[in-house]
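ok trying again, last paste got cut off:
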Amino acid sequence: MAAQDFPMLSKGTRVKEEDLASLACQLGECTPFPKCLDNQMEAVEPRQVVQYSQDYPTTSPQQAQYPLHLIALNSPQRGDMQGIRGIDHKCLLQAQAIGLKGTFRAFLSSRLQDLYSIVRQNDRELLPIVNLQDEELFSNWESIFSGSGGKMNDNVHIYSFDCRDVLDDDAWPEKMVWHGSSTRGSRQTDGYCETWRTGSHVVTGMASSLQEGYLIQQLPRGCTSAFIVLCIENSYIAE
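nice, full thing came through this time. structure:
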């Protein structure tokens, strides 16, 4: 699929392959699921998205079996991500492009958002956090912010929406993750690249070494750096 397949794009417009996939999905022409999920798709019944408001009072025990996915964007990002809304939208588009129905948000703190608060309170202890292959990364959301620096389960990898292992793929030369947070998941006012809107080398964002298996180490890095950005599912799927 190429840019000429989309007549609404002006002549000379440069469009990334990942954005073409998202546009195609919105027109109903996307591949339902990536090849790396083929072995996961044995269920024949369609699944329904369950979304509750922030003040929904309870989560039933039956709902606890459905995990939340943590998936990387298909390319590294510098600090100038068009703000938190821009990068949230990219998470949503790339999830839709492979047929995922849940709501995805960027794994980032910003001026008006603490990373910890992205997942609903009723789900933070109940739902495991898994990768694209449904392998468990964390027992639940709370465990990421327990003071361990967000240490992942051993021998479990993080994949991008297009099925690449971000630690093994050369598309991410720097095996670092942006997060902009404290170890407890609260925003770091000097650690989110001016609300993820600048790529200046004199401004810093808080990052962590995925190579070492951690998601929220406290490692300030210049906002010119191009690092992994993760997306967390914050609505879950019920049969």
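cool. Residues 83-97 form the longest helix (15 residues). The chain is about 15% helix and 15% strand.
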